[in-house]
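User: Assemble these into one structure.

Assistant: Restating your components, then the assembled model:
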Amino acid sequence: MNPPLSDLVQANAKLWSGVEPPNAAAVEMADMLAQVIEGFERLRGELQFEDEPATFLAALQATKEIGQ
Amino acid sequence: MNAPIARPSSLQDLTLVEAARQVASGETTSLALTEAALAACEALNSRLNAVIWLDRTAALEAAEALDRQTASGKPLGPLHGVPLAHKDMYYQAGKRSTCGSAIRRDFRPKVTATVIERLHAAGSLTIGGLNMAEFAQNPTGHNKAFGDCHNPWAFDYCTGGSSSGSGAAVGGRLVTAALGSDTGGSIRLPASICGVTGIKPTQTRVSRFGVMPLSFSADNVGPLARTALDCATILNVIAGADPKDPTCATEPVPDYVRMLDGDVKGLRIGVPTNYFFDDIDAEVAAAFTAAMEVLQARGAEIIPLTIPHMDAIAAYGAVVSRCEAATIHAQWMRDCPGQYAVHLSGRLYGGYGIPAAYYLEALERRGPILMAIGAEVFSKCDVFATPTLRTKVPTLLATDIDAGTPGAIAAFNNLSINTRPINYMGLPSVSAPCGFDSKGLPIGLQIQGRPFAEGRVLKVADAYQRDTHWHSLKPPL
């Protein structure tokens, strides 16, 4: 059985950033990251190996309004 | 609906453009406007808590100097003599800028924000700093350090955030306009909820130099004001390249005001059939439908369409700003976590548990997703419209995470569900009032265009405001 997500978040936050849980709500909200994980799980397969560079700034220019 | 625009009965009822015109024509003075704004702040702030600080002496001195300039006959800027106040995160060298926080309660920056310099160069003056969510990070109006901000239409209700004081101050007619900032809806939410107009420009359109950061990738600077015309007038002044902000676009700035001609004949307005109307409140839906009918009557065409990749946009958008905010606040989260409100430190904390691979995936796909929106959405429509919120305006209590209100976390997160995705897309987005719910709280209409189409989205909002009166209604303060 996997440990609760909040346990993993607490371990990572402490290990990588030296940040402790500031309050109980933080632990509760850390458990809600499960929704983020589910969101990313649903997207698996959409991000393919990309050979070409792509940037958001280039996309802004490529899709911009011309002659408002 | 063709209700007449209400005629101003006092200086505080003037719009920004009307106030500037009256100064230019000699009908009023900057000093009179400034005294009226200061008096309104002092009379109403005990109920709204929209203002954190006022600098009465400096404001009156600036107004007198502007009046001397008027009398000299020199050319005047487009905002000449108009007193404004801004979200308290726009730095003015040597002046207090709290960022709505206990941590920066006495912070005095050494630089002045480019947008403040541009507003002053255009003739406006700044009378004070407005309440805001702590470090611009809640959508409700709660503030632990300076007290909650209250909605001018009903004091127990949220103002929206994070530009809570900007929404309340403009809605409550303390000032004609105010800068807000928008990372996930923080201009559009208080605009919608307080019954005013606000625009989040295209990502990179407006300089962020001298502005407190929240998210490098999603922060935007923009105005809240009574009308789309007022917003266009301010955007004309603040938009454009800034050598001090290398992330700011060099794209030329058109004259947004000249583009507001009321003509939407043949304009294609997309209305999404996915995501934005899920579980929508019936009163909000009815107000939105009525708004589309107003624009149709002006000749616009309504086109149902699907916005692609909404699952990805929702997932990725949630990760980008959260990771970036956690990065910015890491030292204070180690040193003084107790100085943050519970809802803020709780939200920041989760950012330390998100893998970098998720964050980078979210950034990597942002460009291709915007390209897909360009190809699949803006090939079929010129703008797309949604309600700004899916729900009626909630009370402060219902969204109070710090008070432990059951369901508050969900209600808190739900507020920005229609605004957050637009920040990930990077599109310009305006919110304009389009009605009131059965409890007397405002409802907002949100309009998006292609990148750098600020003029077009403002034009649609302005056309709508020519035929409706929602933006001219005054709260019963």
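Chain B touches chain A through 55 residues (CB under 8 Å).
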